[in-house]
Every structure is written in structure tokens, then in C-alpha cells.
């Protein structure tokens, strides 16, 4: 309970009341106002205490986000980078000879993909503000998975050009869409480690791609009357 005001007399004879300092009214821990912008140590203390004083409900929420949102993003990232290698692997595994690709077709496959990616990059983020991301992102992954599977049925380079353009359109929202969700659901201190883990999945996918796709081609070449490169494309759809 705070002490009552103590009257004091000023030089002109008027009285003022002042309340003595009460140590019990001071908040424990460093005050945000007391920490200057250059006081890095004080800012670190605030963040650490914020982590330690989180409620059980907050901890439960973060755990569920890690189990569902983070897991979905990481698995999607690994499969996406597994599949991004398939066009090059298929090209050197029989696609070149099967479709008669003896020019710059492989470069154009990447070019058409990037064209579609750039066209839809910003619109896809705008659409996410009007449509639920839980529908938009999985829906795009399902569509580009189907389109990637259709590459295995292509009979000429022009068909692959068209499919690669639409695959780029659908894939454009994968990385920025997940980053948007992470930044909306995680605090800055929680976001740093999870962004690092999410980006590490790119390296995991790229590391696994060549070994897995080479094994698929070597063991399934000629199965069901299909050349190995078509099975490589079908084995790693973007979904």
C-alpha cells in the first residue's frame, strides 16, 4: 500500500504534495523505457525474460505451430528441391535422345519456368490476402504436382515449355507464402531459428535429389514399357 502524499511548502508560500518513492511499486526486471537503443545487454535481458515468462498456453501454441505449420513447410521445401532437379536428371537419362533435344532446349526449360515464376510472384501474395492460405498453398502444390507428372507424357519440347511455364506460375507462392505465414505466427525471437531450419531443408532436398533419382532410373528403366527418364519425372512430383 503506497504512502499518503506529504505536503511541502514552496518559496511563494503555496503547498504541494509529493509521494515518496515506494520500492514495491517498481516492476521487477528491466523496464523497456529504461533501456536505450544502444543498450544491447538490456535488450537481450528483456528477450530472455520474455521467453522465460511465457504462459503454458503460449508454449502450447508454439508447439502446435511447429508440429503442423513448420512441418508442412519443411516437407514441402524438401520435396520441391528434390523435384527441381528432375528436369536436368531426366535430360541426361534419355529425354534428350527420346525427344530429339539437340539444341538449347534444356536452357529454355529453365527460362520458361522462371518466366512463369516471375509473372505470378506478386499476384500470388496479393491473392493470399483474400483467400485462406490453408487452401491457397496446398491447392497450388496439388496443381503443380499434377503438371509435373504430365511432363512425363510430353512428346516434344513445346509441350514441356508450356508445362514448365504453368509449373512456375504455381510454384511462385511456395517460398514467399511460407515466409509470410511464419512471420505472422512466430515472434521475432522464435522466427530466427525456424527460418534457419526451414532454409536448411533446401540443402537437404538438393543433397538427396541426385542419389534418389539415379537409383529410380537405374532400377525402373524399362518398367511397364516406359523409359527411365519418364519414371524419374513421375517419381518426384511437386506435391
TrEMBL record:
GO terms for cellular component: membrane. It is a multi-pass membrane protein. Pfam families: MFS_1 (PF07690). It comes from the Eukaryota. Signal peptide: none annotated. Residues 8-26 have a biased composition (Polar residues). Belongs to the major facilitator superfamily. Allantoate permease family. This is Major facilitator superfamily (MFS) profile domain-containing protein.
